[in-house]
Inverse folding.
């Protein structure tokens, strides 16, 4: 998780540096798309802060009110980030773009816009490179989409999506702003703002989908369940594993419950010893499984 914090800090630094310059350039040049880009960077800055807060909260130790710990705090704050991207980033950019299309205003000299956008592209591109590099370390050879779907740590891919959307938005703004100024069509500047907003809306839906799944109690993969069942059934006291229930409390903690059929001739003490053996073997084989509850049928 420390690697993911590295990508979050790099994204935070990049967004913080360029958000203010975008707003200043947009105000001086009367550019709707630049204001939208400023909003985008401000929302991204707030998102990184919320992610860092969620990571910190998720590491709190268990107490009597939260016996399994606070790991799901990360999933909650990741979902909040997706809502902010949709509302403050996407919807606001679309609204501002439509307003600028309906009431277009001629853009002033866009030189400062191009300077700011070029610098922003360098900063965001560097942040994206770091985020992709850190995410690649966790993929273990899986395809990108498969790695995102199977990932239990939203902070690992959220920054990749945010920085990817930022780079795509900057390219769109640069192209349409150039056409808007060269062809004297101010509506194109508003169109750029709308496109940036739609990109953010798309990203927010993907992030919300993954964060919601984890927040609602996503369990371990089917192949992992099969391995755990076979591991339990290796014990001589077990007839078969009848049911396995699981949920991720955090990217590094799994709560596991097994319903197991034991041999009929075993007494209570023998079943207790078998349960202890199975619990230890599962924890040794799967370090992420922190809590193992075994219920004899």
């Amino acid at each position: 998780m420390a690697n993911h914090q590295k990508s979050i800090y790099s994204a935070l630094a990049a967004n913080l540096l360029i958000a203010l310059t975008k707003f200043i350039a947009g105000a001086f040049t009367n550019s709707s798309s630049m204001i939208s880009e400023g909003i985008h960077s401000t929302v991204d800055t707030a998102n990184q802060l919320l992610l860092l807060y969620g990571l910190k909260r998720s590491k709190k130790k268990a107490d009597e009110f939260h016996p399994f710990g606070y790991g799901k705090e990360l999933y909650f704050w990741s979902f909040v980030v997706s809502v902010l991207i949709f509302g403050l980033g996407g919807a606001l950019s679309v609204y501002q773009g439509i307003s600028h299309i309906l009431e277009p205003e001629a853009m002033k000299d866009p030189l400062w816009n191009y300077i700011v956008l070029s610098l922003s592209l360098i900063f965001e591109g560097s942040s994206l490179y770091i985020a992709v590099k850190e995410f690649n370390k966790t993929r273990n050879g899986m395809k990108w989409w498969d790695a995102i779907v199977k990932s239990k740590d939203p902070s690992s891919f959220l920054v990749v999506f945010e920085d990817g959307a930022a780079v795509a938005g900057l390219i769109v703004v640069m192209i349409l702003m150039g056409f808007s100024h060269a062809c004297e069509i101010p509506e194109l500047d508003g169109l750029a703002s709308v496109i940036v907003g739609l990109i953010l809306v798309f990203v927010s839906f993907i992030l919300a989908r993954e964060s919601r799944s984890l927040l609602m109690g996503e369990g371990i993969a089917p192949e992992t369940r099969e391995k755990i069942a076979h591991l339990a059934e290796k014990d001589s006291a077990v007839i078969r594993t009848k049911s396995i229930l699981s949920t991720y409390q955090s990217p590094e903690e799994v709560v596991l419950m097994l319903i197991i059929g034991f041999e009929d001739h075993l007494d209570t003490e023998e079943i207790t010893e078998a349960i202890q053996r199975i619990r230890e073997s599962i924890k040794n084989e799967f370090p992420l499984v922190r809590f193992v509850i075994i219920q004899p049928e």
User: Anything to note?
Assistant: DSSP finds nine helices and three strands in the chain. Strands lie at 238-250, 253-262, 289-296.
